[in-house]
Amino acid sequence: MRHTGQEYIAGVLAGNRRMVAKAITLVESSRAEDRLLAREVLAGLMPHTGGALRVGISGPPGAGKSTFIEVFGLYLIEQGLRVGVLAVDPSSRRSGGSILGDKTRMARLTGSRQAFIRPSPAGESLGGVARCTRESQLILEAAGYEIILIETVGVGQSETLVAGMVDLFVLMALPNAGDELQGMKRGIMELADLVLVNKSDGAFVDAAQRTAGGIESALRLLHGGSVGWDPEVMTISAAEGRGLAEVWSLFSRFREGMTASGALAYKRQEQARAWMWDLVRDGLTQRFMAHVQVKDILQGLELRVVAGEVTAVVAAELLLDRFTDGGGADGL
Ligand SMILES: Nc1nc2c(ncn2[C@@H]2O[C@H](COP(=O)(O)OP(=O)(O)OP(=O)(O)O)[C@@H](O)[C@H]2O)c(=O)[nH]1
Predict the structure, then answer these.
(1) Residue 217 has what pLDDT?
(2) ipTM strictly over 0.85?
(3) Which of 134, 217, 302, 316 is most buried when burial is the number of CB atoms within 10 A of its CB?
(4) Is residue 48 within 8 Å of residue 20, measured between CB atoms?
(5) Model pTM score
């Protein structure tokens, strides 16, 4: 049965898990009628959002992100909090599976009534995944989830997207004394508000300390992280559940400090502004590609550009003219 916008809104605000799941399915749909309904639902929920701490977690495969999210999520629940977990996983398109896709990986957290875990939507472009994740985040906030953890796998573009939708961005690293930055690109290190060197247990404790020291020096030179916050480095062991209270206390310190200084409000305002422009750009591209007059000549023109018969500049101008006045001089 199809629900009305009001039913979605009331269900989500009441924290009804089934309605939360359905509302996320709704925003994941790209059908025109679903988009219209999703817009109504999101507008109704909007005044009830913004209360959660939004955290992005990234790092190379095998760093222990899933293990950490499971134990940290359970720790937060013990503190009386409700936790939402989302993923931005561009690889889910190809493999069909995804981070979080396999629920056995976070079995205990998945089983908790205080947690809501949603894998990355499949079959979407990275921009599409980002849109769904942003909208799902709003739904979870309106439903009363107080901490939203957004996991992403380290492939560059997805980190930048996630960093653009969260308050605090965490990078997870492995103890590896020989290569303290572990091939992490400078641009990604610059996004980090906190670097967690995981697996600081057993034989890895010393290596983890050395890695943390190396990363600390690198961070000092980078001057990265959120405006108004100096990035920090900590060693933890997700497997042994060590460091969870310290991570939570850092999150709280981040939120309090950034709220008091106004930096968090400013960051969110700028994120909203950038999000709007992302949507305008995406929408324009979609409309451009679907424009009849543009479609008429697009393919042929592209081939002529590739063949060197028409310059890119002339071709682009011609296409844009067609788009804006539906005609344009065909002076080729
Ligand atoms: N020794 C040790 N092993 C850990 C720790 N955390 C995770 N692991 C192990 O490291 C492996 C990878 O952990 P995951 O949590 O799946 O890592 P991930 O970063 O989510 O990996 P991807 O989803 O592939 O990106 C698993 O075998 C974990 O059991 C830790 O703190 N100490």
Answers:
(1) 87
(2) yes
(3) 134
(4) no
(5) 0.88
Is 134 a pocket residue for ligand 1 (Cβ < 6 Å)? no
Residue 218: CA count within 13 A, CB half-sphere: 23
Specify the length of the chain in residues: 332
Does ligand 1 come within 6 angstroms of the Cβ of 158?
no
Q: Please name the residue that has the structure tokens 């100096």.
A: 230
- What is the number of other CB atoms lying within 10 angstroms of the CB of residue 203? 8
Give me the percent of the chain exceeding a pLDDT of 90.
Answer: 64
Residue 308 burial by Cβ neighbours in a 10 Å radius (0-12, 13-18, 19+): exposed
Closest CA to 92 of 163, 151, 149: 151
Average pLDDT in the 222-236 region? 92
Distance 63 CA to ligand 1 centre (A): 5
Instruction: Output the six-digit token pair for 274.
Output: 């950038």
Ligand 1 atom closest to residue 99's alpha carbon, by position in its atom list = 23
- Measured from the Cα of 238, ligand 1's closest atom is 31
**Ligand 1 within 6 A of CB of 65:** yes
Return d(Cα 210, Cα 226) in angstroms, integer. 25
Q: Is 84 in the pocket of ligand 1 (CB under 6 A)?
A: no
| Cα-to-centroid distance, 205 and ligand 1 (Å) | 16
Distances in whole angstroms, Cα of residue 174 to Cα of each of 72, 98, 185, 315: 17, 21, 15, 48
Which is higher by pLDDT, 222 or 56?
A: 56
- Structural domains in the chain? 1-47 (1.20.5.170), 49-261 (3.40.50.300)
